[in-house]
Amino acid sequence: MAEPAYLVASDSETTGEEKSSSPFPDIAIGIDIGTSQCSVAVWSGSQVELVRNTRNQKLMRSYVTFKDEIPAGGVSNQLAHEYEMLSGAAIFNMKRLIGRVDTDPVVHASKSLPFLVQTLNIGVRPFIAALVKNMWRSTTPEEVLAIFLVELRAMAEVQLKRPVRNVVLTIPVSFSRFQITRIERACAMAGLQVLRLMPEPTAVALLYAQQQQQSVHENMGSGSEKIALIFNMGAGFCDVAVTATAGGVSQIKALAGTALGGEDILLNMMRHLLPDMDTHFSTRGIDEIRRMGLLRVATQDAIHKLSSQSSVQIDVDLGNGRKISKALGREEFEDVNWEIFEKCESLIKQCLHDAKVEVEDISDVILVGGCSNIPKLRNIITGVCKREIYNGINPLEAAVRGAALEGAVASGVNDPFGSLDLLTIQATPLSIGVRADGNSFVPIIHQNTTMPVRRDVIFTTVHDNQAEALIIVYEGDEKAMEKNHLLGYFKITGIPPALKGVPEINVCMDIDASNVLRVFAGVVMPGVQNPAGPVMEVRMPTVDDGHGWCAEALNRTYGSTLDLVTVQKKGAH
Amino acid sequence: MYSNGVGHLPRSDPLRFSFLHSTRLENPPQFVSFRIRPGPAIRSSLNDTISERPAMSFYELLGIPETGSLVEIKQAYKQLARKYHPDVSPPGRAEEYTQAFIRVQEAYETLSDPRRRALYDRDMAKGVHLAFTARRRGIFDEQMEEKSEWKSRWQSQLSELKRKSMQKDSDDNMSWGARMRRERNQSS
């Protein structure tokens, strides 16, 4: 206790250069970067408040337009009309593109956007460009996101009258660790320090946990455990979480997610209205882009209307003699998108199954995100969960409010009324494992494992006197290994000469309190206490943008010469 | 953004611990900047020699009687999570708290699953009640179980894939990797 001042200094704001005199020093803000819209919220001292821009908006469109010298995003920029965003000069949907390679189906689906998304289909990052004065100006999703985050940061600094550095961001459940590094990169470019990246439904779960705790305080309720299912569907992604909540602790039981959202519904409908859309717009001249914009706006408008009315009349003149005039019924809309709705239903069922939760155990069903008004989705969810939808949460603000709560908690803020006595126990959204047993994916940390965690699996060699082994780390739960996300690879060398199946190669994976993944690998010979040679420690992901072709190249170069198989203990199952 | 991490590696300064505990609020923990080096425990797990733990049963760890109900187990778990989860640990002690949390998590996962709890109780009755060794074995068994489940799933999927790739052969547009895999599968 002798020198507290020194210790405070050493542990407070890391660089020490941004000392703020504000009464709320550096409470991390919550940011929800949606595919379509984004928002910022912060703990105000007694509650969470959304930060408004100069036009008094709480929700801002996520896009950056490149038409002038200085790019401008949806925070500061005022769109004269929706069509301006669709003129080719604006890049949007960056959340769907970030960290993806040009063989990814989501990237291919983005090729019908008004800006340029070019693919070579070899597993490198796609080429993205905005149309500026009839020239394609190249950019990257990270750059676009960073420009946007700079605007958000400036807006928050003006409104809060203090520097903003620390943030909690929400991300889709299905984001791989590689995509997370891209988000972190964009934040770093914008001068933001990421305290946490929360899967969106877990942020909603935290908000729910706080509400439950408050109602317990107020009504002297039982305070027993409540199970909630959270379904979040925005423009780009669909996420599900099952949480068990008690006493302000939100324990994530299971997560499920996929890159499926309103954008896919919109594309389906555009193709339905104009079946030869792709050939129609393939040349991508200024006129084609303008026509595509007209179709997009008309279709979007019709979809919105179908949430409240049973049919809608679409009349759009695309020019060059193409006119679409059609009455569209809600049933037709649901038929066209049946595959998407079916996938949503199966995600919910899968998540309940993974959480080992029976439908009867669910206390509340929470539906959030931009698609939450679609009647068909509401029917599916109430049908599966046999519950009415929880109405205590604003579906468009839930995630950002949860992120702001987490930001306050992570910044060490205390609330005299106990509103911040909160904790999220996170689970791994995707399995992490290695390639072994031929060309199989062997998970080491399974999906929905509580974090932090450490797990190991023992492998052995497939050849006599095999001196080296390749550890290729993947993340995901896709059936085909190639469809999972490659996180990195390294080689274990110096395996002592022995018959195949004798050396024990221990691969251990560790996710620490800051969600950092480390992979350890060491060789142990039977009957020997210490590892043969130094143990490898690799922080993952190590791959870079061109990771799409790495696995193929490794396979081509090494085949099965450096393979591993899992050890089946004698007498085990 | 990780450039600040170095200054925050946990140090074993006793002064720091006693002080920080009482000043956590004024002094927000910067979780992201902790870049904890895995401690000896991780390395020793490679040698499978983790055993220096106090021999506490899972019930003792959660602080509940052996007759404790599921509700009690869940309550105890959430209370201990609030105490030991690294998110709420005092700065500099995240690693230590992580270890404690992982043990609490194991106890909870075992005792909240009726099947695993019954196995654990049986082991305890036999006198094999060293929590950590039992835990190690439990995990290993479980992993093997999961793995064999995975394996059978993979095998059925693999055969499906093989079937599909045979159909594709006629297309003659296989990738290098696919061709190598096919050759390997055929030769084995």
From TrEMBL, chain A:
Sorted UniProt keywords: ATP-binding, Nucleotide-binding, Stress response
Pfam families for the chain: HSP70
GO molecular function list: ATP binding; ATP-dependent protein folding chaperone
Keyword flag Repressor: no
Positions of region (Disordered): 1-23
Superkingdom of the source species: Eukaryota
Keyword Hydrolase assigned: no
Family to which the UniProt record says this protein belongs: Belongs to the heat shock protein 70 family.
Protein name: Heat shock 70 kDa protein 8
Source organism: Sesamum indicum (Oriental sesame)
Lineage of producing organism: Eukaryota, Viridiplantae, Streptophyta, Embryophyta, Tracheophyta
From TrEMBL, chain B:
Bias kind Basic and acidic residues: ranges: 161-171
Chain residue ranges for the region called Disordered: 161-188
GO biological process per UniProt: protein folding; regulation of isopentenyl diphosphate biosynthetic process, methylerythritol 4-phosphate pathway
CDD domains, per the entry: DnaJ (cd06257)
Transmembrane segments: none
J domain mapped to chain residues: 57-124
Record's GO cellular component terms: chloroplast; nucleus
Signal peptide: none
Pfam families according to UniProt: DnaJ
PANTHER family noted in UniProt: CHAPERONE PROTEIN DNAJ 20 CHLOROPLASTIC, J DOMAIN-CONTAINING PROTEIN
Protein name per Swiss-Prot or TrEMBL: Chaperone protein dnaJ 20, chloroplastic-like
UniProt source species: Sesamum indicum (Oriental sesame)
Source taxonomy: Eukaryota, Viridiplantae, Streptophyta, Embryophyta, Tracheophyta
